[in-house]
Design brief:
The protein has 96 residues and is an alpha/beta fold. It has a single domain, classed as Sandwich (Hypothetical Protein Aq_1857, Chain: A), CATH 2.60.300.12. 21% of the residues lie in helices and 27% in strands. The protein has a four-stranded mixed beta sheet. Strand 4 and strand 5 form a beta hairpin. The longest helix has 10 residues.
Length: 96
């Protein structure tokens, strides 16, 4: 999606958990951090498409698009940001 003008400008240091990178690589698609009533969530771009105002962050060989509304507050991207209905890995549920 090279036509996106968003970049990492304005994004502080964000740590992406290794489990999140593994999850993204396993699903072989880009993801987006967006706002929900419970806080930031991580969804595939097929579910929540990126916006031109998103900030871009590389995660492995894929991109995490971060809502500009979340970018200023985000310091960590954790596996618990993935909603339960997106989880296909029962091992993750056992880990917590």
């Amino acid at each position: 999606m090279s036509d996106y003008s968003g970049d990492s400008a304005g994004l502080g240091e964000v740590n992406v958990a290794p489990a999140v990178i593994e999850y993204i690589e396993k699903r072989n698609c880009d993801f987006r951090i967006c706002t929900s009533c419970g806080g930031p969530i991580l969804l595939p771009t097929r579910v929540k498409p990126p916006k031109k105002s998103d900030v871009l962050l590389k995660a492995g060989t894929h991109t995490i698009y971060i809502s500009i509304h979340q970018a200023r507050f985000l310091t960590d991207i954790r596996i618990d940001m993935i909603p339960f209905f997106e989880d296909e890995d029962p091992v993750r549920n056992e880990r917590g």
